[in-house]
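In the design runs reported in the main text, the only information available to the sequence generator was the tokenized backbone. The following block is the verbatim input for one such run; it is reproduced so that readers can re-run the procedure and compare outputs position by position.
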């Protein structure tokens, strides 16, 4: 399975890197392909290293202005012309999506895939790995949106929040093609 992972390229402490590495190793050992932003820095590097070391493939989609930071030994690397094309390519190459900790770019990517699901433009499963409660606030906001009528479909049809790497991967494996 090709799993797109949206996450930070920032250098982060162990409370975020250890669960991300665990998720990456599970992907690689499971024979999955990582589809990611292609960066050789921060958490993106941690996940790519973990997948590759565990035997998985790497498919990167970078963008022109970040191409100098792209991983050199990926199995495949595509350079998009802009961020919109990058997101479209990442999603096109993926069977499922996992969202790990990240900043505004990750949040943008996460909300785009959820908007596509809301409108029936994709059925790909989406999981948010809620490492160290990082996405507790977002989860609460989504629940409020659902409770107050802002979501035309149940939140559970859009995204699954997982607290552990194993649960995140299991959800994706069980729901691809479902």
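Verbatim output:
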């Amino acid at each position: 399975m090709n799993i797109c992972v949206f996450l930070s390229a920032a250098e982060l402490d162990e409370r975020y890197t250890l669960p991300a590495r665990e998720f990456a190793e599970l992907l690689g050992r499971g024979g999955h392909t990582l589809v990611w932003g292609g960066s050789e820095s921060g958490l993106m590097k941690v996940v790519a290293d973990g997948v590759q070391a565990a035997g998985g493939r790497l498919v990167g989609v970078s963008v022109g202005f970040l191409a100098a930071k792209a991983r050199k030994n990926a199995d495949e690397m595509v350079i998009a012309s802009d961020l919109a094309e990058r997101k479209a390519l990442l999603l096109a190459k993926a069977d499922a999506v996992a969202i790990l900790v990240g900043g505004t770019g990750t949040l943008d990517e996460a909300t785009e895939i959820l908007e596509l699901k809301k409108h029936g433009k994709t059925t790909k499963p989406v999981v948010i790995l809620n490492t160290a409660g990082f996405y507790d606030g977002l989860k609460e906001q989504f629940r409020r949106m659902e409770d107050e009528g802002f979501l035309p479909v149940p939140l559970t049809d859009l995204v699954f929040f997982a607290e552990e790497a194993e649960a995140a991967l299991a959800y994706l494996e069980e729901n691809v093609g479902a």
